[in-house]
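Q: Start with the shorter request: fold the first protein.
A: Done. Sequence, then structure:
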Amino acid sequence: MIVRKTTPAESQRVNEVFAIAFEQPMENGPADPKNEHIHHWAAFEEETTRIMSALTVSNHMVHFDGHCCKLGGIGGVSTLPEYRRKGGIRGCFNKVLPYLYENGYDFSYLYPFSTGYYRKFGYESCVQKYHVTLDLALLNPPKMQGSYHLSETPHTMSDAICAIDRIWESRYNMMVMHSDNYYDRYSKANPAATQEFTYVYFDPQRQPKAYVTFRKADEPDGRNIICSNFYFLDKEGFAGLLNLLKSLSSDHRFVKFTLPAETAMQYLLPEWSMGAAQWNILPAGMVRVISVKQVLEKAKYLGSGVIHLGIQDAQIPENNAVFTVTFSDGQASSVVTSQNSPDVLMDISTFSALICGVCNFGDAAQWFNGLQVIHPDACFDRVFYHKKLMIVDSF
């Protein structure tokens, strides 16, 4: 088996493998030779040079503890049926992960078909979301004095949407930082033709506070509003969106959207009993740290201290070390590999989840399988603690 980056001339075959593996049209395939921000890796059968398996890496910048970090989004993971369980994808990851390290990536992220499978490559469950379903007939939001504006050519709301996104993104670890050209879709919006509607809510001072993008869907439980974007900067923005959606209640039964899985979010709703609201927690992907040293240098700490972290990584040898972190006033002043006795041993998947902020260290020590506490009095709770997490982009 040979594993390497594919060439632009092999893009069509990458898409064919994807189409065969997932029984989908080729136009849904991941390969685009004109997109310089995406590259593809494949495992080739040595005898025939036929592609057995392939995956795609897309480049993104994401928020992490107040820093801008480089992330490799993994997608298009596919294997032809006759080559499954022959190590093609494993071979790709064994090449891709060191490549990401050598090229300065901080993180990688993917949406798994199996958490157990990708945990073998150092990934661990990360973001969770609330999937919210509201009965519009029972919705009674507080009245707002602001106004709504539909984004449509030539009355585009792209600047207001961008302003909201910039603030919303900065609040959550793992949120992708969108470039300016991402907002071209709103400047060219044609809702009458596409039947996709984006509304921006402005407060009485004409400041953009929230926006929602939705389309109608005829589903088994009714004619519903399905939101692909639902972002707000404060409780006024949230209430503003609910007022807009309430105005559509005569033609629709439910509205459905996602929120960050923060308990306090539930208090935004004035009524959640009697079937007015349903909240379901959904997993939203797995994270992997690519460079332990880089991430520890960028992480935000609580107060000051010194800790010795023993990390075990089967794919990236440079991460197999004891990292001694000295931090002061919430920032790392020194991150070095050392011969010190580790305060804790943890595999790379556990470290990846904890440094991103999935939970407090006390909960991790009680429930996680991938760590061993050696010095219980170490300052773990100043290094690993719960942080706000969210992701909306797919890879």
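Q: Next, the second protein, separately.
A: Sequence, then structure:
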Amino acid sequence: MVRVVACYKWVLDDVDIRVSADGSVDTSRAKGKISEYEKGAIQAAVQLAGDFDATPVGLTFGGDDAQSSLKDALSRGLDEAYWAHGDTSSADGSLTASVLAKAIGTIDDVSLVVCAEGSADDFARQTGPRLAAELDYPCISSVLEASVNGTTLTAKRRVDNTVETVEVELPAVIAVRPEFAEAPIPGIKAVMAARKKPTTEIDVAGLEAGSPAATVTATKGAVVERKGIEIKEDSPEATAHALVVALQKEGVL
């Protein structure tokens, strides 16, 4: 049976990240999670697999902590999960795409690869197109909705203020926008069933994936200086009007 691969990323939960007044970033207490964007990509893969009776599977690239993501991913409707086990501390979109492409090469009968438009940590929007180039598959980015009929995938993608309808022959890579699918919270039965689904660890060291094309040399958080403007009016209508006026004065509107 053909497979639809949902590529997803294990990231630090931004709720737990702290930015100091000097811009230094503290991630020491941050726990990991599947990026919210990739949860949508997983849901999109599950939906599209249903269009042509394919098997939806998950694929992630990460270190030891990423193993914790497998059961969560499987509880979201995937039938199998693959973990490309390797160090991602210096991985950029180029290296990530190379690893994912070689990992996909170990999976049988892949017909469609689904990525999120970008990940929650940097939203560089590089992995999907680079992955397609590595696989020599056609790529459709910024996908709002899609369907599969036989071996043809039809997608609507947003380009600035217009929407294009595009068709490609499978196999292909698509990068979906957050609007494509809302990821539901898995129920107890789905979580329990995930424990029995198969997982496969792939050793990245044996993939000869290469090195990153870009290196992060420093990280500094944005510090927002709030003006603390208070709006107090007698009615909701007057409050809304005062808010609009204030935003216009600040150049926001």
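Q: Describe the second briefly.
A: The radius of gyration is 21 Å. The longest helix spans residues 36-51.
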